Structures
1.
Amino acid sequence: MKFFPLLWATLWRRKPRTIFTMLSIVVAFLLFGLLQAVNVAFNQGVEMSGADRLITHGKYSFTEILPYGHYQQIRSVPGVDKVSHATWFGGRYQSEANFFPIMPVDQETYYDVYPEFVVADDQVATFKRERTSCIVGRGLMEKFGWKIGDTIPIQATIWPKKGGSNAWEFQLVGVMDARDETMKGQEDFMVFRWDYFDEARAFGQGTVGWYNVKVANPAEAETVGRSIDKLFANSPKETLTETDKAFNAAFIKQFGDIQFLIASIIGASFFSLIIITGNTMMQSVRERVPELAVLKTIGFRDGGVLALVLAESALLCLIAAVIGVLLSTFASGFLKPFLPGLEVNLGVWTLALGAAIVLALVVGAIPSLRAMRLNIVNALSGH
């Protein structure tokens, strides 16, 4: 710490240059923090998927609908504890911007298979009783200002009603909460009754999107999955049964390879950052050649000079990185209503600080090596 005043003074030797370089790093780490938070949000549901749950869907695509008749056959497979089903509805509330997952489900079994979502018993009872009822996540309820008893109009994008209308209306009878605080935001979707949906839709009667299967023993999940798929092998509607985690990961990839996109954007921004920050460090060392020679003259070893230049690089990068990630933390709070689960968590902070250290080493490597190899006589003579 006794060398900190020296480091601080050299860092601010050229204030405009340092400020603009810091701003570049701050913007890069603001972007880094937000993109990593998006990655966390998209993968949170995948990581929290139940180990005792399987998803049975069409063999060639989960967009392929399956006969409702599969239900009893799956239920009879040894090792199966409970079975439910759901279908992707694909609707909007009021405008194209108000998109959230909407699914018709089996009202009798859905919350037995998904115990991580908590709904009051009286609300579940009403859901099972009222044909046009629906239940929504608490985040959606607060976002749109809904209350129990409201009529929620939804504009269908896939499933029109008989007669050609795309307008569906549901009565809000319940609100979902995540049982585990770490899953907060994952409950922000809407479910309504499949029997009402099946009766009112214009086509596709007697089909479901996929089956949600809860197994009695998670260790036997793979065996149970193979047994289910054997039932429908060589049939017109063959199935593929996979873990809940694998299904959710595949579903997310339908929106694009999020991790690849994030890595590409971050990689491009950091490549530019290395050029900008490396140039700053090179100029800084070039300007201080006589000063570095004096340090060597008064007893600083080559390793000490190298450490000083690397420490200056690390100080620059770490200060800017912390500011950038702090800004991304505040920004994520404003964006969270639009993307539930968006959070700059400890993992993002750890990645950011690690990236800042790597950046410091990369941009400081050449200048510090040059400083270490500096010849005192040539440096003081101006050669």
Note: The first strand starts at residue 53 and ends at 58.
2.
Amino acid sequence: MSKKTIFKKGIITLAGVIALSGIVQAPVLGATTTKAASSSVQSTQSAQLSKLIQKGKTQLGVKWRSGVQKAGYGFDCSNFTSWVYSSALGKKFSSSSRTQRYSSSIGKQVILDSKNKYKNLKVGDLLFFKNSADPGDGTLNRSTSGGGGHVGIYAGVVNGKHYILQCGGGRAKVTYEPMEGTWFAKSLVYAKRIVN
């Protein structure tokens, strides 16, 4: 047998071993595993956020009461957001709207688009509004824009409308309502994501 024939047989044998061992398929398998893991994380996150909104909705109609955080009895806006996150997901943070807004240790800023404030929002994001307690200059996204006076939770899109779950905001109780055409839409200046 010539050296050329032995070399060809060796190459064919090596190719067969590689094919049977799955070495060539490893990247495809890895990509599939990564997609599955990503899908699983998204599914878990979606379930968490759904649980968050459902927990908040159990308090619909409960009265706004300054400085109070008591399920079935009363909340102010930031005590409500703090209670919802703690009760639904075990995430604990300050019950002060100013601390929720200005503390870098609570969530990560979500940039509000100037043409469509809702564009970058996801369910569960904390929404901050300028009001008499913290009017700022009303500029979107800036650290000096105000928006530490009132806070609510973005509750997603229902029938083409963007909903908020909040306590107070001129309503004197916990509400779940569309933002379009309301004070909420006009006064929104800042947002934070708690669940990444």
Note: The helical segments are 3-21, 26-57, 77-89, 97-102, 183-187.
3.
Amino acid sequence: MTAPLANDTFLRALRRQPTDYTPLWLMRQAGRYLPEYNATRARAGSFLGLAQNPDFATEVTLQPLDRYALDAAILFSDILTVPDAMGLGLRFAAGEGPKFDRPLRTETDVAALAVPDMDKLRYVFDAVAQIRRALVQNGTQRVPLIGFSGSPWTLACYMVEGGGSDDYRTVKTMLYARPDLMHRILSVNAEAVAQYLAAQIDAGAQAVMIFDSWGGVLADGAFQAFSLAYSQRVIAALKAHADAADVPVILFTKGGGQWLEAMADTGADALGLDWTTDLGRARARVGHKVALQGNLDPTVLFAPPEAIATEARRLLDCFGPVEAGAGHVFNLGHGISQFTPPEHVSALVEAVHSHSRQLHRR
């Protein structure tokens, strides 16, 4: 895995180094909006059959890169691999999303929780290594590979609720009624996530992203104590890991726009923004401390191509002048919808690359 990168624009942007244009990738870019993904998933037989097979995971990771001029690949996996390895019994119910057969509801459940043996997640690390090899063409690696994990808090939401939730009543009740139990879960999760991301880096991931998808459901104060503090613990562990110290870390909290300054102090190299945060004002708030990633509303991709290009240009202009120390990675404010017309993504990629090249030449 020593092939030079043919395109390192994404990594340069994360490190706030000069680039010729604004790099672009999409959260959930390998997904159900692509007919080729659906064909591979049908061959795999199930989502877990797809995610837990390195050959299939490699195939779907590369599919969007073969279709679009994206600037990074992201490992195809799921954020719930870690709690599954903890023995909580992950399954995907048709039409209902992920479910755990053994959620954490009692003091006994929480006391028994432990960091899993990383060998139980060997299929993830094998997929990372295989994808890195598959990205090499003619002696160079096409684009960098991103690894990822759910944040300790987001994983805890699924682990306590037993699946997705509309109101997070069960997990937030535990948080307020038994904060000791919640801190115990989060401590175990933070250690597990740190080990998991470090192992992905050891296998070949060149940047990693922490998805704090449900941090924004917390009240101010609770977010800092029960979400941010544990994401920061993960980042600190990665920066202390010899092989991971120079690997950029992206922290994304959906609904976290009010806490950007605190998030920028975690040691993350970049912050992901959802579409509710003004990109220019976010840049003014964090200065040159971190790069920014985002933040197009995914539903823009249902509009005609001309409207998509207009919104892309508006966001790039909103970020402001490209100067030394600035770093911007264009992305959506959350994952791409399965109903997105694939050709509309082509319009977005073209608009971002062409308009940003003009901005970077100024």
Note: Residues 270 and 326 are 11 Å apart (CA to CA).
4.
Amino acid sequence: MTILHIDSSISGANSVSRQLSADTVAKLSAARPDATILYRDLAATPINHYVMTDKPGNDSAESAFSATILEEFLSADTIVIGAPLYNFTVSSQLKAWIDRIVISGTTFKMGAEGSVGLAGGRRVIVLLSRGGVYQAGTPWAPFEHAETWLRAIFGFIGIEPELIVAEGTAYGPDARAGAIAGATAAIADLPALAA
């Protein structure tokens, strides 16, 4: 059993998504002390933006690095991602990581009927934090492009992600505490890792 833990917030110790992703990994691994945990902090050690020569299998250091990122993802049974909303979408750090795991012929393929996801069988849990309130029916809902994009991109490679959202965290200490408490309760309700 391998858990891949990804953080992408630039907020350091003040980050809501980092707190929630750590809580999620702690909850899941408590029930599976045999689990191997791999950790990648995309803010502390940023990944370069992806270019075509970085594709695994090419003869370059960046290609070899891409292969390492892809292998970490493919070897994981569960992936836990801390994802803050920045400027209405995911951080560029997280986008750079995702660009290295969405690889034609490995995590998806194109066929006569369209795209087919090849990365199914993995569990992806995303802890999404938002300073504002973007849920359906609010004035800011049309500006939300992180949750929707994450569902689409993981769905494209064959995974239906589980998303836990803490929003309104910028509306003062009480709103922040309430958002964290709601997300923490949802984390407590997550199903345990499969045996």
Note: Residues 31 and 192 are 7 Å apart (CA to CA).
